[in-house]
């Protein structure tokens, strides 16, 4: 039997084999890194998707977030003991007044007939009806009755004085019940009036009681009061 002699492993042969193994390993390395990278990206995408879902769930408002509180509902309605005298239906009702500008709306309320007559005599109907986002403190007929007849007639027959008195009842911004709690506001007459109170009890200039507040018209908030306000003279 013949035996085949193996070639001796020379240093050059060993270097050649090592170089071949290194090239094979180098070729396999990018494939391994790509596989790891793809797996990591998928995992990262899964985590990002989960995070987005959690964020979406946290941001989505629940039923309680969308519903106004009972306190907000209560404050959105007119308040005060005299509100019960306002007509339930028709143009003089709360719903009817909300459709008209303030001077027109007041003319449909029988309890404000003296005020409406004074506004017409002073030539302020168009001024009040064309204003926007104002507040009117509206004295009732009984409020005018508190003024001695001679004094009332004197004011009613003096247009400049009547205009001064009436414009003192107008503030150039909406005054919600919250703003009546403790306020000082410039009027259309230029002098300031003050408000104070809480809940459903408020006074103007510490003298006139709000008897039906937060009545809405198309351009104004009306607070009906039981006394006529007198500007500083």
Automatic annotation (TrEMBL):
What is an example of a Pfam family matching this protein?
A: Fasciclin
Location of the FAS1 domain: 99-229
Q: Cellular component GO terms, alphabetically?
A: extracellular matrix; extracellular space
Q: Give any single GO term for biological process.
A: extracellular matrix organization
The entry's keywords: Signal
Q: Return the InterPro entries for the record.
A: Adhesion/Biosynth-related, FAS1_dom_sf, FAS1_domain
Query: Do the record's keywords include Protease?
Result: no
Q: Where is this region: Disordered?
A: 34-76
Q: Please state what the protein is called.
A: Putative surface protein with fasciclin (FAS1) repeats
State the organism named in the record.
Streptomyces zagrosensis
């Amino acid at each position: 039997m013949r035996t085949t002699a193996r070639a001796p492993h020379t240093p050059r042969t060993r270097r050649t084999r090592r170089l071949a193994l290194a090239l094979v390993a180098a070729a396999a390395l990018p494939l391994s890194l790509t596989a790891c990278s793809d797996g990591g990206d998928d995992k990262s995408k899964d985590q990002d998707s989960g995070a987005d879902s959690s964020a979406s769930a946290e941001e989505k408002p629940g039923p309680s977030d969308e519903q106004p509180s009972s306190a907000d509902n209560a404050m959105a309605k007119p308040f005060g003991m005299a509100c019960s005298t306002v007509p339930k239906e028709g143009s003089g009702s709360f719903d009817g007044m909300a459709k008209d500008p303030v001077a027109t709306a007041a003319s449909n309320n029988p309890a404000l007939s003296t005020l409406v007559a004074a506004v017409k005599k002073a030539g302020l109907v168009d001024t009040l009806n064309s204003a926007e986002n104002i507040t009117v403190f509206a004295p009732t007929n009984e409020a005018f009755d508190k003024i001695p007849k001679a004094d009332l007639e004197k004011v009613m027959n003096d247009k400049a004085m009547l205009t001064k008195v009436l414009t003192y009842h107008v503030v150039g911004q909406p005054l919600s019940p919250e703003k009546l709690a403790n306020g000082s506001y410039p009027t259309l007459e230029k002098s300031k009036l003050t408000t104070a109170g809480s809940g459903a009890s408020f006074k103007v200039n510490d003298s006139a009681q709000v008897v039906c507040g937060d009545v809405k018209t198309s351009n104004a908030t009306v607070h009906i009061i039981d006394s006529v306000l007198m500007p500083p003279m």
